[in-house]
Amino acid sequence: MTHPESDIKTFIPSRTALVYAVLAGLWIGLSDRAVALLVDDPQLLIQVQTYKGWAFVLVTAIILYCILRQQVLSWEKRTQDLIDREKQYHFLVDKSPLPIFIQTGGSFSYLNSQALNLFRASSQEQMLGKPVIDHVHPDFREKVKQRIQSLNRDKQEVPALEQVFTTIDGKNVDVNVQAVPFNFQGQDGAGVFVQDITGHKKNQEQLRAWHDLMQYIIRHDPSAIAVHDRNMNYIYVSQRYLDDYQVTRDVIGRHHYEVFPEIPDKWRQVHARALQGEVISSDDDHFIRPDGSIDYTRWQCRPWYKADGSIGGIVLYTEVITRLKQTEIQLRELNQSLEQKVRERTARLEELNRELEAFSYSVSHDLRAPLRSIDGFSQALLEDCHDQLDDEGKDYLQRVRSATQRMGHLIDEMLKLSRISKAELKPLPVDLSQLARKVCTELSQENPDHHVDIQIQETLTAQADPALMEILLENLLSNAWKFTKDNPDAAIEVGQKVLDSQEVFFIADNGAGFDMQYAQQLFAPFKRLHSADKYPGTGIGLATCARIVKKHQGRIWADSEPEKGTTFFFTLGGGEN
């Protein structure tokens, strides 16, 4: 930096002396010659010489004044220019986004605002005069001392160095430092330019951690994954990939075609297409191993992109599915075998159904005729030979008639159960409330001496087969009617409630009830939990109910307690599987 004091000490005095010497010599030489030529009188010559001296002094004074004034004005202008430039320099340095400081003699001589912030100082006074080395991390002090010595000795810029500064409150800051020789206020030193790279170092560490995590994830991924750059060199690879393709060497950085020199041309074309941005995949492919064995695979090849949107390379996802393929073949063969068995069993079932239909026809026609004959002839004997039979004989014939009639009723119920099992389901909207009222009216008419308090909830509807719903309600309500006959305050309720978040229909009575330990037998054909003498029936009704509910993809169950009544619950799925 130039100083005005040196200018005034050297530039102005030297020029002034030179001008004065030249003018004085010219004046003395020329004026003495002129006076000698013009004045002969010695007395007058003395006076003239005296006046000439004073004139010389006056003229030289005026000339020197003009010269000095011009020089001072020039100096003032240059000084002001230097001051302005120095202010601009200080402004630019202080406003620099980079921390900058000047060291002379190894101590801080100047710091811009960013440098103060870097060292967490609030003013210049906290840092000026303090050794720079005190704010260098101990791990880097020896190297920084060597750099300072080299800079002072060679007067040349030293290369950038990553190191660690220590702030005045003891914090460590990662920095990149570059220094150049600099003379500050007449002292040799260095201008030091600092870049705070703490954030950059953290980002690098984070990127390194993500990179390591990516490598870890890919290496241990259960899928076979290989990542290549645009030149088909390996970047990442999973262990599964190495195992599946029997690669025992390290492949990172190596060319894919070097690792697999005999790779088919179709794969080279796939790679080229993926490097153009296409995603190619196959769910059923195969490849031949070096030993000639064939393995099946499914794969996908897609490009990966850099931050600028350009294609950086390709990612190959593969899975060896040889075992899966073998299992698929075995399953296909097993399915074919099962289909054959299903066809055979279907044919057998169709044959059994035909036999069952023939049996049903036989039961309906061939068995009914003998029963009607037995009942008819028994009735004829009672009527025609009434007077010839004693009371015991009449009782025997009456028992025969009752047995044949029960057998006929049992056959009817069995046929009904069979027809329900084979009937085609025709679901429609059904008003169960109205259907229940109809059934209860018929039961009241059939049993006028049995008075029952009937409660039927309104708007009970279901999507079901109307005919089967009528049979279901007939069986359940006639059951409730039958088992409440000994209760003078008989009551039956038909309704709907929510159990376990599901809408459930129920028919409850306060009749005889039963022990729940026998509940599993309740819906089996011909199973009875009460005496036939006290509560007559065939044991088919509840089995029929179970068939109807099952046909609607529903569920039926009961809750009961002896002498306190029974509640039957059922749900309706609405259709047949």
Automatic annotation (TrEMBL):
Domain of life: Bacteria
Catalytic activity: ATP + protein L-histidine = ADP + protein N-phospho-L-histidine
InterPro entries the UniProt entry points to: BphY/WalK/GraS-like (IPR050351), HATPase_C_sf (IPR036890), HATPase_dom (IPR003594), His_kinase_dom (IPR005467), HisK_dim/P_dom (IPR003661), HisK_dim/P_sf (IPR036097), PAS (IPR000014), PAS-assoc_C (IPR000700)
Domain annotation PAC: ranges: 281-333
Keyword rRNA processing appears in the UniProt entry: no
E.C. numbers: 2.7.13.3
Gene3D superfamilies reported in the protein's UniProt record: 1.10.287.130, Histidine kinase-like ATPase, C-terminal domain, PAS domain
Domain Histidine kinase: 362-576
Annotated TM spans: 12-30, 50-68
GO molecular function: phosphorelay response regulator activity; phosphorelay sensor kinase activity; protein kinase activator activity
Top EC group: transferase
Phosphoprotein in keyword set: yes
Name of the protein this chain belongs to: histidine kinase
Annotated organism of origin: Desulfonatronospira thiodismutans ASO3-1
